[in-house]
Amino acid sequence: VEDKLQDGVPETIACLNLADIKIWVLTGDKLETAMNIGYSCNMLRDDMNEVFIISGYTLLEVKQQLRSAKEQILGLSRVSSSGDVEKADMFGEDSVFEETIIAEYALVINGHSL
Q1: Could you tell me the pTM of the whole model?
Q2: Whether 31 and 79 share a structural domain
Q3: In this structure, are 42 and 61 located in the same domain?
Q4: In this structure, what DSSP letter does residue 34 have?
Q5: I want to staple 43 with a disulfide (CB 3.0 to 4.6 A). Which of 3, 38, 94, 105 is the partner?
Q6: Average pLDDT over residues 18-29
Q7: How many domains does the chain have?
Q8: Contact 35/26 with Cβ under 8 angstroms?
Q9: Could you list the residue range(s) of the whole structural domain that residue 35 is in?
Q10: Is the Cβ–Cβ distance between 19 and 12 less than 8 Å?
Q11: How far apart are CA 25 and CA 83, in angstroms?
Q12: Could you tell me if 31 and 74 lie in one domain?
C-alpha cells in the first residue's frame, strides 16, 4: 500500500520555499516513510548540502547529534550582512543571527529523539 500526496502538495511547498517560509512537518510515520514523503514533496532534495538525521535514545545523545549538526553547518562559509564571504565563528553566540548561511540543510528527528 502506498500513500500518495494530495494533488498540488509539491508545488505548494515549492512556492512556500520560494517565499522563504520555513516548513516543519510532524508525522507519526517510520523514519524511512517520513523521508520518502519529504523527498516526494521536495522538502528534502538530493542537491541539499546535508540532511541531518537525529536518532539518539538519550538526552545526551540527542544533544551531541544536534551540536554536531550545528557545528557542521556553522563550519561552512557564510555571507555576512556586508556581503563578504567569511569563515564561521562557531563560538560567537550572535554570529548566526547576523549572517546568512549560503547552503540548504534539512533536519530529520525521529520519535524517540523528541
Answers
A1: 0.69
A2: no
A3: no
A4: H
A5: 38
A6: 86
A7: 2
A8: no
A9: 1-47
A10: no
A11: 32
A12: no
